[in-house]
# Entry
Amino acid sequence: MSKRAPQSNDEFAWARFDPEAYVAHYYADPHPDDDEVVRLTARALAAGAGDGAIDTIDVGTGPNLFPLLAALPVARRVSAWEYSEANVAWLRKELAGGRLRAPWAHFWEVARGAHDPARAAIAEPIAALSAKTDIVQGSIFDLPPRQWDAATMFFCAESITEQQEEFERACAAFAGAVRPGGVLAAAFLAGSKGYQVGAEDFPAVSVNPAALEAAFAGIAGDIVISAIGERSEEIRSGYTGMLFLTARAR
Ligand SMILES: C[S@@+](CC[C@H](N)C(=O)[O-])C[C@H]1O[C@@H](n2cnc3c(N)ncnc32)[C@H](O)[C@@H]1O
# Structure
């Protein structure tokens, strides 16, 4: 029996990505691995900002507020760059909702604890976030170069295609969106073979530390990769653990 060819990003039904099913499956019951990623991201962005304020972008935000909350205390503006119209609609509604729903209130507490207390003393985080955020419907492959001071990405480049070349192109576009010297912080599923959201199947490229290092070596410096929650079996669809990367854009 012949193996089918790896499929590309545009062969999957991103408009049918079900945001509520995704949140219920991955985030309704916050996992310590996610808390760790939020903390590491907040610290990386705080280090990048120093005493100033930075323009940040999160790529492939999906139905997830923690990337934006991790940036909130140090961000001048936050861009949420997402491809699926279903997820863009979810983001708009969630930011207009007037309060941080569970589990986002939990993740805000984690992000807040990792930032300087004075900068993170934000009385109405959802209102502050809504005022600073630009939600853009766009593809990672169409990111403008060198526009932001820092970029974050969670489970996007490796979770949007089965093709190694496309994964590497997505990583390059992500890193290229940041001005030279700016902070990159990103989490990747380790060894994933794909995932299900509701009834829909979505792809993955299986990533290990060496593959990640190779994807970023030519486009970023100061690369640090750490494994979070390595396990032998899946605890959620497509998830056995993750790799967290920080780097500086070239
Ligand atoms: C596994 S989800 C990750 C969502 C979220 N970042 C998180 O941390 O849970 C992958 C996301 O990538 C988005 N996506 C798919 N193709 C994309 C593309 N070409 N450019 C940007 N985002 C894309 C999907 O719509 C989805 O929101």
Q: What stands out?
A: The radius of gyration is 17 Å. The beta strands are 54-59, 75-82, 133-137, 148-154, 178-189, 195-197, 200-202, 220-228, 242-249. The first helix runs from residue 19 to 26.
